[in-house]
Amino acid sequence: MFSRDRWKEILEVLTTNWFRTLLTAFGVFWGIFILIILLAAGKGLENGVKLDFGDTATNTIFMWTQTVSKPYKGLPKGRRYNFKVDDVEAIRQNVDHLRFVSPRNQLGGFGGANNVIRGINAGAFNVYGDYPEIIQQEPMDIVQGRFINYADIIDKRKVAVIGEGVKASLYDKEEEVIGTYIKIRGVSFLVIGVYKKKNTDGDSEEAQKEIFTPFTAFSQAFNMGDRVGWMAITAEDKYSISDLKESVFKVVKENHKIHPDDTRAVGHFDLFEDYSRIVRLFAALRLVAYFVGTLVLLSGIIGVSNIMLIVVKERTKEIGIRRALGESPWSIRGQILMESIFLTIISGMAGIAFASLVIYLINYALDSNGPVDMFTNPSVNIGVVSIALTILIVSGLLAGLIPAQNAIKVRPVDAIRTE
To answer: Coiled-coil stretches, from where to where (predicted)?
Structure first.
């Protein structure tokens, strides 16, 4: 039940010595402030790193061929081989729980010559022969026209989807792009779409300078036959590609008579493994933030407990008189606990409010000046604030418990005699 007299007494006790109360409150204020700022900074780093992944299908491996390192079935080591179109179908048929198996061929790359021409303009760009699924593994926004589809694959249509960087290099600013032709190594391709990459891996300009064509038309135009340069393989959401990749390698090794223990013949990059490592890293950082913030907060709580012990000692005579007049031990214990909880919650809420203001200002600065590499949108959710409030309430109880017990242990007669 609300008691105005009791709350008036609490305020009088806490305001009797303002400086001491403020110093005590600052310990709790600083502890909760540090806890929230550490968690927000960790979230900002996590958001920045995950933003680099964009909407990329992280449950993916990229696989290519390398030199065979072991002799097998009469074939020597040191030989080279190529993936074939049959490998793609064999993987689909023999490995369960795969969402996409996308074969890819590529022209250009590092140090490529001017392989794409339109009129008097020319440029060196990465050109890919792909299946339509690649847009779900390597997301991009189609800002004009459309992406390649299975009709293009079946009919081996010489069509191309170009990046905004390619458009800027080969076309005038207001020039119409859709329906025009570009020449890739002397072969004409009809432009059917323009894309903008979502995930740039920190290289925004180069990510927009790529060209996507149907896999079948690419193979026919550039005499690739049934060869496959490399593959992008994505597992279903409930399954880890890291667990399935050995089954994929086994199929490839059987098809190309490679020793089962040859770990160098199939090169790969496991995106899911890298992503999982990052997730584990930030989980560890959150634990460190909670640990450090809680320790700082604990030092503030100890300060509250110490000051309440001093307050109880200063009020020994008062407590003795109240006991002599018939006030129950529970009433006195409740008074001390309320003072402790009140001081803890008020200082803690001030810390939460100040931390929220700092986070708001940081986000405002980031929005105004542009994102910082690997750091964006530092924030804490309502669950973290709820945990902080719970910690404050429990801490306030613990901080006042020992002083409250000390207050009711003193015999009324002894307390009244105290000078």
So the answer is: none
Q: What is the CA radius of gyration of the chain?
A: 34
Give per-residue pLDDT as tens, 42-67.
888 777 776 666 556 688 899 999 99
Q: What percent of the chain has pLDDT over 70?
A: 78
**Please, which residues have CB within 8 angstroms of residue 361's CB and are 6 or more apart in sequence?**
none
What count of other Cβ atoms lies within 10 Å of the Cβ of residue 238? 7
Domain range annotation of the chain: 4-54+276-417, 60-270
Note the pTM of the prediction, 2 decimals.
0.68
